[in-house]
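pasting for the record
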Amino acid sequence: MLELLKASLENAPAVRMRDYEYFVFPIADGIPSVSTELLGEVIDAIDSKIEGEYDKIVAAEAMGIHLAAGLSLRTGKPFTIIRKRKYGLPGELEFDQATGYSSRKMYINGLAKGDRVVLVDDLISTGGTLTGILKALSQIGVRVVDVIIVIDKGTGRAKVEEEFGIKVKTLVGIDIVNGKVRIRKD
């Protein structure tokens, strides 16, 4: 299962950004381009992991947008993007995002108390982005039904699960060893 995704990861170049080991692969970076077969495989896998009723799909800009759009087309559910740009709209919520290599403000629009959402993203590493999003969604009163992330790298998943008492579902676990992506056997 997920043979196309795994193959794309096995050839992914790793790059160092300060103290963070970053890797470049189609689903996150569009390098090389994302084939419809690969995207379809990933969307099918995400869709199969969703449990429970939900109203909307939520993803963070930019790497989650195509995942949310594909899942939206598959399920007929609308999607909302958490943005890196402030629009100043009524009800906009600003929060801090901190990753392994940067930090910034992010903004939520279009979600309301009681919304039931599935959160999708390309990668969890340190857990910084997901932590910021979950705290912000909690402030609004949004109910997170499921969190599904394509790649699990690092220790962030366990930290987020412990802090929020939520299961973070992932498709593939990886490590970077000697500058190469290695798929976990778990």
